[in-house]
Amino acid sequence: MPICDQKIRTEWPWVAGKVIGADGAQHRFAFVRNGGAPASEAFRRALAAAGVHADTPATVLCDGDAGLWRLQREVLPNATIVLDWWHAAVRFEHALQSARSLGAGTAGTRVASTAVRGLERAKWRLWHGNWPGCRRRLAALCRWAGREGVREMVGADKLRRQVTGLLGYLERNEAALVPCVSVVHKTIIGAGMPSGVGDCPSLYPDPGSPACPSS
Question: Phi and psi dihedrals of 76, rounded to 5?
């Protein structure tokens, strides 16, 4: 999968990304979000330069930043939106690291295994399109981490914060949750990796559109 990775921090919030056609052609773009022109207009011009317009069938992928989704709604309201699975996977891994260290230095190995197993099952459900099942698993894990006998353990508070944050992140981006297995098999979705003030969406015109020649 093509990846757009920008990790440079500046005092100006900027947006960078690329348009990728079905033939593999790539058009990169970048603009300052609060520059002279409105961000939506800058985004529109960047896409137009790559042959993408409001009526172009397209798939837009980003990390879930609310500002980027707002740009998508203003410029490409009919596009299919997809949450970047790299960012979801990173959040799961942070939670898993907290789960593995639960009760570190004590006899809490079995408890840590329960937390890890719960997260892995939630992730499997999400990756295979069962978002309701994933949500139930994560909510149950939050409740479990607050139970007497668990909440007193070393690392329990951190685990609860990580899982609560993961659940909130996924709920905020519920409309963009496309099964990971679908993304992998179709190979038509890009990946974007932002860095706080520098956000990086990727956009794929759908096969058959004017901006996306048939292969």
Answer: -130, 70
- Say how far apart CA 205 and CA 175 lie, in whole Å: 19
SS3 of 129, please?
coil
Cβ 164 vs Cβ 158: under 8 Å = no
More confident residue, 199 or 34: 34
Task: Find out whether 26 and 19 touch, Cβ atoms under 8 Å.
Answer: yes
Of 171, 187, 100, 93, nearest to 134 (Cα)?
Answer: 171
Is residue 160 scored above 70 in pLDDT? yes
H or E element at residue 19: strand 14-20
Rounded-to-integer distance, Cα 34 and Cα 81, Å: 24
Domain assignments of the chain as residue spans, ordered by start? 3-84+190-205, 86-174
Report the distance separating Cα 62 and Cα 65, nearest Å.
7
Amino acid found at 133: G
Left, alpha or beta for 128 (phi > 0: left; psi -120 to 50: alpha)?
A: alpha
